[in-house]
Specification:
66% of the residues lie in helices and 2% in strands. It has 195 residues and is mainly α. The chain is elongated. It comes from Oceanobacillus locisalsi.
Length: 195
């Protein structure tokens, strides 16, 4: 988010400073989470490669022992499946991150609601890590459900100084004679006491 964009929206410098501070907190938290996840990923990759190496060494030493060979093969298969599952999870995580980023770039008011209306089977992540097949769907949603996105102009609606009920002829109280008002109240009280 850039200060020039916020200034174009007509925000004051104080409001811009507050928005940028909050945005900075969110960005720093996301960076920390990403760095932590990348470190964990690299550690897990190293552990998997070490296990594969250890299994290969063990396999070489276990020549002639059929039971041990079968155990090693099953462990190797389990490691391969764990690695594939982990890679699939990483791809899904990257896809979700990129999709959310694109929805924020498209100025979706509620990314969760917009995401529910998208056909995610058509949207794919290419080799470069970019989302493909999203822009056409977003253009269609902007036409059919424009309320889900902030306006392109970015101008906030002007506030009117209308105060309901003020300076209207119908809201002026009628002049009431105090004698008639007191008499009416007395009659209302007297009737209640009789009942």
């Amino acid at each position: 988010m850039q200060r020039e964009f916020l200034k174009e929206l007509g925000l004051e410098d104080e409001a811009i400073d507050k928005i940028m501070a909050e945005h900075g907190k969110a960005v720093n938290t996301t960076k920390e989470d990403l760095s932590s996840a990348q470190t964990e990923r690299d550690t897990l990759k190293e552990q998997l490669s070490e296990r594969d190496t250890q299994l290969e060494d063990l396999r070489g030493k276990a020549q002639g022992n059929e039971d041990l060979q079968a155990t090693i093969d099953s462990l190797k298969e389990a490691n391969t499946q764990a690695k594939e599952s982990y890679e699939k999870q990483l791809k899904e995580q990257k896809f979700n991150y990129e999709l959310d980023r694109e929805l924020m770039t498209a100025q979706a008011r509620n990314p969760v609601a917009v995401r529910a209306l998208l056909d995610t089977e058509v949207i794919k992540l290419d080799e470069d890590g970019k989302i493909k097949g999203l822009s056409e769907q977003l253009d269609g949603l902007k036409e059919s459900d424009s309320y889900l996105f902030t306006s392109e102009e970015g101008t906030p609606p002007s506030s009117s100084n209308f105060n309901p009920g003020s300076k209207q002829k119908m809201n002026t109280p009628k002049d009431v004679d105090p004698y008639d008002a007191g008499r009416q109240k007395a009659l209302e009280r007297h009737k209640k006491e009789e009942e």
